[in-house]
Amino acid sequence: NFTQQPHLAGTQENLHLAEQIQANWKAFGLDSVQLAPYEVLLSYPNETSPNYISLIDERGQEIFNTSLYEPVPAGYETVEDIVRNAYLAGAKGLILYSDPADSCAPGVQPYPDGWNLPGGGAQRGNVLLLDGAGDPLTPGYPAKEYAYRLKEAQSAANLNIPVHPIGYHDAEKLLKEMGGAPAPDDSWKGQLSVPYNVGPGFTGTSSKRKVRMHIYSFKQVRRIYNVIGILRGATEPDRYVILGGHRDSWVFGGIDPQSGAAVVHEVVRSFGKLKQEGWRPRRTVIFASWDAEEFGLMGSTEWAEIPSPDEGFEGRSLFESWYEKNPSREHKGFPRINKLGSGNDFEVFFQRLGIASVDKFSSYPEIVEKFYDPTFKNHLAVAQVRGGLVFELAEAVILPFDCRDYAKALNSYVDIIYNITMKHQAAMEVHKVSLDLLRDSVKAFSEVANDFHHRLELVDVHNPIEVRSWNDQLMFLERAFIDPLGLPGRPFYRHIIFAPNSHNKYAGVSFPGIYDALFDIDHKADQEKAWEEVKKQIFVAAFTVTAAAGTLKETL
Fold this sequence. Notes:
single chain, Aminopeptidase, Glucose Oxidase, domain 1, Transcription Elongation Factor S-II, Chain A, three-stranded antiparallel beta sheet, 15 helices
């Protein structure tokens, strides 16, 4: 019953759901389950004065209003860069819509006849212009009741222009008589029956019409609640494996987040059953239901025996169907696992703290049963993968990390950066920029990783001190890639190997400092300064990789 009611963060309905999950997890047998409250700034619609967009004539009369509600709810992601760029370009307001060219698969009907976004469905998300994540009034610190808070005008919550999402049916009515210059090229055009002119103003008899935004949203500090369940470890209780998913949703949350929340819930139930039968994990397992966040911890080396839920792969493993449908480009014989970007709760764990993490969308509850997973067999497969991953990480005497895989990945990431630099060969020669230092450091890391695993084969698994020492090296490797100073202009993100793309937070990039320095470098006004920044970021990356290799060397 996770989707019976809308449960926006900071509302009584979401608190009730948190208390329900707390009670369930206690009944499942976890050692402790607590609610962890935080006071954060959230934005809410005005219940009596909803936001809308109107088209007004020369007399100021409204001749068209966008819908005050969606015929059926929908959910999508964030558009921070669009807002920032619109403000810098002088826009007074921003109206967002999801064009069918971007949001609808060909040959599929809009919901409820298919799973495409309907014309009345508006994009959901936030436009918080924050470096990183978290409460905008307490950046870098927990938003407890006693916390020091910035003034709203000083914070990232001080959005400079109003933003309002509408459905593509309403957008079509606004765009069909748009004037101004034509679209620069076809990439600016979508699938609506409009010319896609870029404005300003309207054409013909509509030339005197204007668009008016009616925005009545308000911001308020509200209390949110994380649910934290703990199953204490028997041998290494001070070492944690964390599995979580967010609970809050824009409306009912049939897919985002409750499909994932249901999987976490089932894993908790399974671990509770094992505990009742006398089992206790080697390491402590922490289960979390996050509020006002999106967290995912998913993926495993323990999926091979899980039956595939995909049609055409009956009798074969999930690993096989995953590999055949989406093979890795870098690693032959393995399925693809994407780089972690942003938009999920792993962001602070992985890209700020350097804790190894892996990743796990629509708000129509019945779309899952009707279109995506009618028998919920995919949910079962995901629960088995997640549960198997957590079990392995919590139980394995030696942590199941292979540093040689990291070395292979680093080599492929250097190749990606090299391919980008190939477009600037002449400039690199002029400014004496080379990737040799980075290649040498990655080569040295590979050699150290190989030596580490050769020595690891000789470990005495019955010696707890020796096991602890080896596991420390494996566990702290990821943290060795953290730069305390953070990325240039993005200090929240401190991981030198992985970060969200600075121009698309949902995508991840490798060697982000170098990638950002090279982005659009031909158009930088001061070329000498721009290429010096590239040199600096190559050095930072090479230094960090070398330092990380040092954590794998034989201890004294």
